[in-house]
Amino acid sequence: MNADLKILLTNDDSHDSPLFLQTIEVLASIGKVEIVVPASEQSWKGKAMTRVGPLYADRIDLQGSPAWSITGTPADCVNIAIHNLLAERPDIIVSGTNIGKNVGTGFIFSSGTVGACFEANIAGLPALALSQELAPSQFRQWMETRSFLPDTAAEIRLGLERMIPLVWRDYFLRSERQATTWNINFPAVYSDDVQIVNSRIGHTFYDRCFTQSGDRFHHDLSLTDVDQSPDTDDCVIRAGNISATEIDIRALGQGIS
């Protein structure tokens, strides 16, 4: 462990996510981890920030690790942590590990996991967004019960214990060079010969997001056409490898045609 390395950790699934707790354990063996996490789930919030109304920060304990719980979005958490809560500026922000993959253009900009990293980049800090692909049955289990079956939990734990250090070794030094986000997606099934593959964000978009029931609308994402090109983030993880995509917000809109 490098006690001088300051890691700020957040997510968009809130503090009761088992993947978040596992990520705390792994990162605590790498550096000094400060935890600032949304008080409730904030999936699909992108880089939204709270403009109207107060936010509250409470001290909580996550399996022996002190943390801050914020009544706001992941981006709120990062900004408040950097500028209000932490005694020292972090060296890097890690967001995740998210329950479910974050791949494709339409989903990258909707992701609270990635949005937290963009907020870090705005502050001039590098970031890693970590996401774990799940089998459809595993994701349904989480959505219905907010828990995983024991075998699923053990399988994911094994994978994260191996894959997070692997990614850290290869991408932390790259992250230090500039304030960009490396969007990392772990495959659903871990194997000992897993590789990290640099990929591009697939041109995958969504269609309808809501269904109507009476006078109410509920989030209910319709199926999408996935970019099947072999160099895309989604294709890399479906091939059983870790996808790594660098996103530089300072390069957005800079091309002149």
Please explain how this structure is put together.
The protein has about 260 residues and is of the alpha/beta class. The chain has helices spanning about 20-30, 75-85, 105-110, 110-120, 135-145, 150-175, 235-240; strands spanning about 1-10, 30-40, 55-60, 65-70, 90-100, 125-130, 180-185, 195-200, 210-215, 215-220, 240-245. The chain has a 9-stranded mixed sheet with strand order 3-4-2-1-5-6-7-11-8, sandwiched between helices. A two-stranded antiparallel sheet has the order 9-10. Helix 1 (about 20-30) crosses helix 6. The relative contact order is 0.15. The model has no long low-confidence stretch (mean pLDDT about 90).
Secondary structure layout plus pairing:
Layout: E1 2-10, H1 18-28, E2 31-38, E3 57-62, E4 65-70, H2 74-85, E5 92-99, H3 105-108, H4 112-122, E6 127-132, H5 136-145, H6 150-177, E7 181-186, E8 196-198, E9 210-213, E10 216-219, H7 233-238, E11 242-247
Parallel strand pairs: 1-2, 1-5, 2-4, 5-6, 6-7, 8-11
Antiparallel strand pairs: 3-4, 7-11, 9-10
